[in-house]
Amino acid sequence: MTDSAWYGVTPEPVANKIAQHIAACAPSIKSILIDCFAGVGGNAIAFARSGRWKRVYAIEQDENVISCGRHNAKLYGVDQKICWYHGDCFEILKNELSPLAQYSVIFASPPWGGPGYRTDAVFDLTTMQPYSLQQLLDLFRRLTEDIVLFLPRTSDLRQVAKANEDSERIKAIHYCMEGASKACIVLPNPIT
């Protein structure tokens, strides 16, 4: 795997728990999971292994990273359950996957702008690079309201709530290992 892939991959126990939670709360009509910014496939593999999804679509811009993802999926025996796309996720969503919208849940672990988020007591989601929280939500909502965002564990959840003023609630789940938060997912419109 590439150096940045080692840094960015979700720890396997966390990816598995996230996959379990999303599988359990997604409406039964939802049979497709689209993993935007899929990286080397840590989450896509967990989704495929959950047995919940008819198909997992994994989108990644870096061809070398996709090669690692395909290799990893083969090692886990789920290479036939994941369809990989190389390119910009928003273009692929619009031009390739939009016919699947009514059957899809979008999972996105977007780039956060580098490791600087670790020093922030509260991470400002308006400064995420290259996409802010609002840009992500606006673009994903063109396809579906069923969105799960993997965000820095110190994310300012008030910003998520403000971006969802039309919704009565949001759901945030922290995943911990050895007593420390390792991940946070946010469901702007809880799919439960």
Largest sheet: 7 strands, mixed
Count the E strands.
Answer: 7
How confident overall, as mean pLDDT? 89
Helix content: 25-40%
Shape: globular
Record the strand order, biggest sheet.
3-2-1-4-5-7-6
Low-confidence segments, given as residue ranges, are none
How many helices? The count is 7
Please state roughly what percent of the residues sit in beta strands, choosing from under 5%, 5-15%, 15-25%, 25-35%, 35-45% or over 45%.
15-25%
Structure description:
The chain is α/β, with parallel strands linked by helices and 192 residues long. The protein contains 7 helices and 7 strands, in the order H-H-E-H-E-H-E-H-E-H-E-H-E-E. The chain has helices at residues 3-8, 12-25, 42-49, 63-75, 89-97, 133-140, 157-162, and strands at residues 32-36, 55-60, 82-86, 104-108, 147-151, 171-177, 180-187. The protein has a 7-stranded mixed beta sheet with strand order 3-2-1-4-5-7-6, with helices on one face. It is globular, with a radius of gyration of 15 Å. The mean pLDDT is 89.
Task: Note the main attributes of this structure.
192 residues, alpha/beta, seven-stranded mixed sheet, 7 helices, 33% helix
Layout: helices, strands, pairs:
Blueprint: H1 3-8, H2 12-25, E1 32-36, H3 42-49, E2 55-60, H4 63-75, E3 82-86, H5 89-97, E4 104-108, H6 133-140, E5 147-151, H7 157-162, E6 171-177, E7 180-187
Explain briefly what this protein structure is.
It is built from seven helices and seven strands, in the order ααβαβαβαβαβαββ. It has helices spanning 3-8, 12-25, 42-49, 63-75, 89-97, 133-140, 157-162, and strands spanning 32-36, 55-60, 82-86, 104-108, 147-151, 171-177, 180-187.
